[in-house]
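User: quick one, sequence for these tokens?
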């Protein structure tokens, strides 16, 4: 059995009448890159703040290596907060050394670690600059260095990729992959789903303050509706209409994209297509994480949802009841 390194167990947190986190449960293994995605206001930042001890939960627990997280455990965590937390007037090198020492490194080790991360994150040319004079992207690299300088065993990063140029994205992605290869537990939130799909081992999709799906992209797509691309050159517009469990997603020329609900028979679709004449393509398609995400959010959105202010928080609140502590993998109600 693989023992999780970080466990988030049934967290709840409200701000006044707003339930920001509502039974959040998942775990992450050592060496795993875990993507934390969800609509605006879904509860990602609040969860990360609770993990780091910046906020206290109303209920639930965070465990590190099987024990409730305490101060000593949190010293092994590296955090990149959403609001970014650097002292603008400190110089980059000085700042990183200071943070290293603050996390308990002896001065020489803090200096060496700061130098290493400055080099690795390609910050050498601005090591003597004040943080406030750096571009936003470079400030973000410094922020990552700040999360890494003390050699943490877990990284919790709130939208580390937002606002980065493509080269900086590559650097950030490579560093996170290297850390994971070094058995560090890495969790990050992002709205860049194609990047999350490329980078992460597993993805947790958050809605209404809890996890509505979790797993590898492959696992998530196995739980989703199947998709088919059918090219039937002689078929009329509505050749697939009326097939049980089949929805026409799009039609371009002679090609029809279909979504098949669970239990729908793809052989009936093939028969229906062949009944129109030749079939030059009949191809199962694998949905991207973006498509899976859209489907999931649409599937779990309550009909009375107010699409206003809290679209993310409201999007799934009504549909996730039952996703308790065991909803740790795949979509709610799906196989584990
Ligand atoms: N300090 C606070 N006081 C009041 N409400 C808060 C506070 N922090 C968060 N909230 C509310 O809790 C809900 C969850 O917010 P949170 O920041 O965790 O979402 P998120 O998933 O990180 O969103 P985003 O993707 O936009 O960053 C939102 O409705 C938000 O307005």
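Assistant:
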């Amino acid at each position: 059995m693989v023992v999780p390194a970080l466990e988030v167990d049934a967290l709840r947190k409200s701000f006044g009448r707003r339930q920001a986190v509502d039974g959040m449960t998942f775990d992450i293994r050592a060496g795993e890159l875990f993507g934390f995605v969800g609509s605006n206001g879904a509860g990602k930042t609040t969860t990360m703040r609770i993990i780091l001890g910046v906020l206290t939960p109303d209920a639930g627990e965070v465990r590190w290596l099987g024990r409730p997280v305490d101060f000593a455990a949190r010293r092994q965590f590296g955090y990149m907060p959403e609001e970014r937390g650097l002292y603008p007037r400190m110089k980059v090198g000085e700042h990183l050394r200071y943070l290293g020492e603050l996390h308990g490194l002896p001065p020489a080790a803090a200096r060496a670690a700061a130098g290493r991360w400055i080099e690795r994150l390609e910050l050498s040319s601005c090591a003597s600059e004040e943080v406030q004079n750096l571009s936003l992207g470079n400030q973000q690299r410094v922020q990552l260095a700040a999360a890494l300088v003390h050699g943490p065993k877990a990284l919790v990063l709130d939208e580390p990729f937002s606002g980065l140029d493509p080269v900086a994205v590559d650097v950030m992605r490579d560093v996170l992959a290297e850390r994971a290869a070094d058995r560090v537990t890495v969790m990050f939130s992002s709205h860049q789903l194609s990047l999350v799909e490329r980078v992460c081992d597993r993805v947790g999709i958050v809605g209404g303050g809890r996890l509505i799906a979790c797993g590898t992209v492959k696992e998530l797509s196995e739980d989703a509706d199947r998709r088919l691309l059918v090219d039937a050159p002689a078929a009329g517009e509505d050749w697939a209409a009326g097939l049980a469990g089949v929805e026409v997603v799009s039609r371009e020329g002679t090609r029809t994209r279909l979504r098949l609900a669970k239990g729908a028979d793809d052989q009936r679709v093939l028969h229906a297509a062949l009944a129109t004449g030749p079939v030059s393509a009949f191809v199962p398609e694998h949905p991207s994480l973006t498509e899976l995400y859209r489907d999931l959010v649409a599937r779990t959105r309550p009909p009375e949802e107010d699409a206003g202010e809290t679209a993310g928080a409201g999007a799934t609140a009504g549909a996730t009841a039952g996703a308790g502590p065991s909803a740790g993998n795949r979509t709610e109600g799906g196989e584990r």
